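User: Quick one: structure for sequence A, then sequence B.

Assistant: Sequence A:
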Amino acid sequence: MKCVYCGKEFEPNSNVQKYCSAECREKAYATVEGKTKICPCCGTEFKPRYPIQKYCSRQCGRRAGDAREYERRKNGYVPEPVKLIVWSPARRKCLNCGAEFVEHFSGDKFCSDDCCWNYYRYEIKLAIYKVLKDKLLCK
C-alpha cells in the first residue's frame, strides 16, 4: 500500500491505516489548515479540521448519511433485526428456609423479604454471640 502523504510503499498494520508512519500522519494533518473544501451536501466552502473530512458540519454529515440509507432501502436493502439477549429466570433454593423459588432479579438468594430478614437477623445474632462468647471466655 502507498502512503497518502509521501507516496512510499508500506505494509499496513490494519485495514484503515493510510500513512506509513505517525510522522507522515501528523504532517498530513498539519497541511489541512490552509486548504478549503466544498461540502457535497450543502455546497458551502469550509476549512476541514482533518484531511478526510467531507462535510462542513455534523448536520450535513447526518443528512448525507440519511440520504444514503434512504437510497439503500429504496433499492431493496432490509437491515437485519437486532437480536436481544433475554434474561430467563432460574429456579433457586432459598438460603433461609430451603424452599425452591423462581428468581425475580439475577442473583436472588431468598424466596421472600421475610426470609431475607430472618436469615440476616440470625446471622447478626450469631456474630454478636461469637463476639460476646470470646469476650466472656477471655475474662
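Sequence B:
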Amino acid sequence: MNERLIEFLLRDEVTRLSGMKKQVYEFIVKEEDYLASKADTVDQFMRLLVKHSPPRLAARHFNMPYGEIIRFMNEIEAELNERLEERCKRVKWLDCTEKDQQAFAEYHRKLFLFVN
C-alpha cells in the first residue's frame, strides 16, 4: 500500500486515541522526531535515543514509572497497529493515472487521496 496513505491513516488514528493515550503517544513521537532532526546518521540517532530516552522523558513529564510508560506505549502502538490493519483492509487504492490523460495532465502535480 502507498506509504503516504498509511501515514495519513496513522495520523488519523492517533487523533482518535483517548486523552491520556494520545498525550503520551504524541509526546514520545514528538521527542523522537526532534532527536531524528538533530541526527545526521542512523547511528547518531540511535545514540541520541539512548542518551535522551523519550520514554524516560515521558515518565518524568507524566509522573509515571518508566516501566509503566513502556507498557502503556506498547499497548498504544498495538492498538494503533490493529486499527491501521483494519482500515487498510477497507481501503481500496485506485490508480487513475491512465483513466483520462487529458484531465490528469491538468492535475499532474497533485496527489488525490480518497479515504473512507
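The mean pLDDT is 87. DSSP finds six helices and no strands in the chain.

User: Thanks, that's what I needed.
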